Amino acid sequence: MKGLPTGSRLLRPALVLALAAWTLLPLFVLVVVSFSGGWRFPSLLGADPGLNAWSTLREGSGRLLPALYTSLGLGVGTGALAALTGLPLGRALSDLRGGWRLLGAACAFLPVAAPPLALAVGLQFTFLRAGLGGSVLGVTLAHLIPALGYTSLFFLGVFSVFDRGIETEARRLGARSWQILARITMPLLRRPLAEAFVLGFLVSWAQVPLTLLVGQGRVRPLTVEVLSWVEAGQDPLAAAGAALLVLPPLLLMGAAAFAFRRAEVVAP
Amino acid sequence: MTSRRGRLGIAAAAILTAPVVVGVGYAVAGALGLVGPGASGRPSLDRTFLVLSESAVIEGTLWILWVAAASTLLAGVASMGIAVALRGTGRLDGLGRALAVLPLPVPHLVAAVAGLLVLGQSGFFARLAFQAGLIDGPSGMPALVYDPLGIGLIVALVWKEIPFLSLVAFSVLGTRGDALERTARGLGASGRDVLFRVTLPILWRGMLPAAVAVFTFVAGSYEAAVILAPSDPLPLPLLTWERFVDAGLDRRGDAYVLALLGLWIAALAVVAHEVVRAKLPSLEGAHQ
């Protein structure tokens, strides 16, 4: 870095400290409020600090635990479907050439760029007519729309650099299509598949407007419950729900980073 | 494009586009008064003109554009500063970079809830100010949430968007910055000149697509605005929601017009980005 613009010796520690405060303070406050029995002004820790909102998780009472399960179910379902469907779609897009390829990528970008609320307003009628309104399946399929855009674009990138020579070689040696898929392609794409699953999971995990409009208040993941707790002024529950919304994505990304640091690179 | 692979590619593109086409198509039909609540059954642009000329719609649209522009600009500038200052290979730089991207997987809704608890008039900062004797009570704290300028919402969005833009900035510097900067230094440019005439231009050009993505996302985002935005003016996404669930069936149709307005804003931002990018001289080969 010698001679290139960078932070001075004094600036960098100060910047890292400021970054630590900027990044961690809001998360710290969430945790503090979630453990308070009631966060009344002017107490910093709130009344009766303790397990409070979190105890409903252990006891299985209240709406926090069901909401967590619903969020996890939607996230896992959307992540799995988005990864498994995004793979063939991304591969098919990568087979396009020239202007067609640009058009294909633009098509995959559409569901990513469209504001979910605008999409939900237009799609709600279709979901209701199909009998999918207010159901977990309906909300999963609604979440799949933007998630599939992300994973298709992701696999378009993966297959742009994927060496298909090994598949051709296996075919020459007499392997059938399903054998190539099960024994060569899928094992080689384990890491991108896991990353695509995380991508789909995260899209679903944070989704609000599509959940509200297609779920119609009957499907209530953490995001929907947190919104209703904020509106009701139930700060400790809202903070606990919000803290729960932070944990799985952080753990997933940390686990993925840890696993992939140890894994060999299988796709160039 | 008649090969089997080509046909499969086009089919894949069609599958991905279909839900958006259905959604937009229904919204267009709704805006024209052909379908949906309060539809007359005859195609007409009357509702579209009426809704778009409402002062609440104009103010709500300008307000969310202001918030999107301010938060994107602030997050972009902060990310460029972080990327330049912490580009080294030392532990401190690595720690700083990790801290900068930590909130990446945090949902926008959580950023908004945290913003409310930290910046609200009875929030964490207000309590600290009270303990320090700076204010007498919540009313002494300046309104940073539900405020007309959207300061609380902007701060929460900057907190949420810095990780993404920083990640892009780190990547741009890692792949593009070095060669041009070293050439400039070799030709006698000062550190300040390299920073302002090479490093930062490389950064903002590389970050432009990501910044456009952030801008369009924020402009159409519902979940952060519903927690931190004021009710007057009501931001476009909240206005869309309000009309869509309005008790009066006549007003519900307005939501289709507003949803299309949101889509137009996203599309215009992408087109504007393409125009700007096309006009910029290429940096490729400039250092050769």
What's the short story on this structure?
Chain A is an all-alpha fold and 268 residues long. Chain A has 12 helices and no strands. Helices cover 72% and strands 0% of the residues of chain B.
Blueprint (SSEs and pairs):
The complex is a heterodimer of chains A (268) and B (288).
Chain A: H1 11-34, H2 55-59, H3 64-94, H4 98-113, H5 116-129, H6 136-160, H7 165-172, H8 177-188, H9 190-205, H10 209-215, H11 222-231, H12 235-262
Helix pairs in contact in A: 1-12, 3-6, 3-9, 3-11, 4-6, 5-10, 6-9, 6-10, 7-8, 9-12, 11-12
Chain B: H1 4-31, H2 46-52, H3 55-85, H4 91-101, H5 108-119, H6 124-131, H7 151-186, H8 191-220, H9 225-228, H10 236-244, H11 249-252, H12 254-279
Features:
heterodimer; A: 268 residues; mainly alpha; MetI-like fold; 2 domains; 12 helices; 73% helix; 0% strand; disordered C terminus; B: 288 residues; flat
Give a description of the structure.
The complex is a heterodimer of chains A (268) and B (288). With 268 residues, chain A is mostly helical. Chain A is built from twelve helices and no strands. Helix content of chain A is 73%, strand content 0%. The radius of gyration of chain A is 23 Å and the shape is globular. The two termini of chain A are 28 Å apart. Chain B is mostly helical and 288 residues long. Chain B is 72% helix and 0% strand. Chain B is built from twelve helices and no strands. In chain B, helix 3 packs across helix 7 and helix 8 (191-220) packs antiparallel against helix 12. Classes of the chains: A mainly alpha (268), B mainly alpha (288).
